[in-house]
Amino acid sequence: MSIDREQPGMAPGEGAALCLRDMGAFHVGGAALSLSDLPITKKVLAAGGEPVRMDPNGTYWVGQMYAQYFFPAQPLSSVPLQLWHGGGLTGACWETTPDGRPGWLNYFLRQGWDTYLCDAAERGRAGYAPDHVWGAPISQTAESVFERFRIGEGIHGLDEQGLTQHAFRGGQFPAHAFPSMVRQMVPRWAHTDSVILEAYASLLERTGPSVVVCHSQGGMFGLTLAMAQPDKFRAVVALEPAAVPASSEPGTLYDVPTLIILGDRIETDARWPSIRARIREFAARHPSVDILSLPELGITGNSHMLMMDANSQQVAGLVQQWLARKLLSS
Amino acid sequence: MSIDREQPGMAPGEGAALCLRDMGAFHVGGAALSLSDLPITKKVLAAGGEPVRMDPNGTYWVGQMYAQYFFPAQPLSSVPLQLWHGGGLTGACWETTPDGRPGWLNYFLRQGWDTYLCDAAERGRAGYAPDHVWGAPISQTAESVFERFRIGEGIHGLDEQGLTQHAFRGGQFPAHAFPSMVRQMVPRWAHTDSVILEAYASLLERTGPSVVVCHSQGGMFGLTLAMAQPDKFRAVVALEPAAVPASSEPGTLYDVPTLIILGDRIETDARWPSIRARIREFAARHPSVDILSLPELGITGNSHMLMMDANSQQVAGLVQQWLARKLLSS
């Protein structure tokens, strides 16, 4: 299997029809939760509609997640591949890129993977708990995201000229299309990690052992679950995981084949040098973990949003090659 | 074109591969919004991660919506079909039904429609505004939804036996799978109608004239926009629209071919008799509007969630036949 013969910037098979033997979606995980003793109100829910008595006391489902599945007509492998997004994002980050190119969902589908496109608990089509349960979420400003995702620095507002001017020179993120990425951002919470992990565990219980391609906050979830339930993972590909599992005990086992990919400009970032140090310690302790630092391969300019960068297909190709070497040839 | 020869409960072509010439997603609509003078905090966003300075002052994008598109390899028509969900729901309601059958997305794709699966502004992958902008959303209890969606009455909690016992006898909704529908529910606001309408207008600007299949709150949006911008609509199919456009002036034009579908048990509902009365007035004033009352056709037991009911494929078939008569034969 080689992606080297493909046209640059073009997904394998792009242009040809994508044939699926099935597609659909489901929610999984979470639990029923009852609320009581809250005040009753009346609200008109649609202009011109009848007022509805809103009694918040009763049963909700809380902590579930959402997965869409796309199964190619001619699958490459009996193992499915799952796409787990990062914090403040949804499964949409793996679809069409902000500047309109095919995303990693289409890439891996065209490679023949049975693919699950996930919205973690608390966001996107997964939904989130009533206000009474988790309190108000956090929303991130465009200015902060531009900097923390290592696209550039010092923007104020979203005018295209400012974005292009303040993007890092040689950066791979399509800065002019940054507003389309900002539209993808969703509010998040900072204390729901265990809820999200449980939902992912329920998902894997349903899907069976999988290749998990995960990003940022999702990278942390992927690595953490792979350590706790290695039998549910055939491989983990973590794009710039926001954290690695703490393994204070020297003998802690982690033997899932794992690829951690790092982008560029980590040295000059406020947070990434220490995250990378912990990633390196983690890889040093666990021989099943490979680190792929793109700048060290001569691939420069990648932001935190590797699946959206101008060279996203090239990075996807590296993932596919690593997976082929680790899984498909054995 | 006839669906009558198909096996009952089976979508046309189900079992055969579904071939797409393209699929992807985008966000559209909304506007940048700046917040200032709010307090700054510091939060750890991923367990074991580095604390992040959270400055809520800055730029957000607010009021955008999300659309996934699926374009069959062999389209039926040059006009796309859009699926607009109801209140407290997302595009997921058109996918796999709560009891695991193919939903209307797959049905219309297999009929050959270029299909947009939408999340309206404020929910799902569309995201929602920071807490400072819209305030806290409303969440609906399972007990209230069970009653208001005319599935049954008097449940407390979500145990399967209780659900089956309290479902209306002869009802079409798969009551045992109601928890899977509850997991689909998302919080909503009651004062964002104009934001949502503007986003849908932006979507239609991008997609061009469409057939819009819309439900409940989405039905109200579909009919309202079709009255305001008839050139953007080839047809509207409104499943139990929560409201119809007010047209106090007798000469108000509404000439988009429109089908309004009503389910069963409206007479005994607290709100639906008056909504239906307004729907009938609306249809009486505008000859382009057809009403299809399922019980009057001898199709009984349908809930408010027509696309999830046990006979959802039969109802989809009626929609397809009406569309074929109105559009494809002309």
UniProtKB/TrEMBL annotation, chains A, B:
> Which parts of the chain span the membrane according to its record?
none
Highest taxon above the source species: Bacteria
User: Where does the signal sequence lie?
Assistant: none
This chain belongs to the protein called: Pimeloyl-ACP methyl ester carboxylesterase
Q: State the organism named in the record.
A: Ottowia thiooxydans
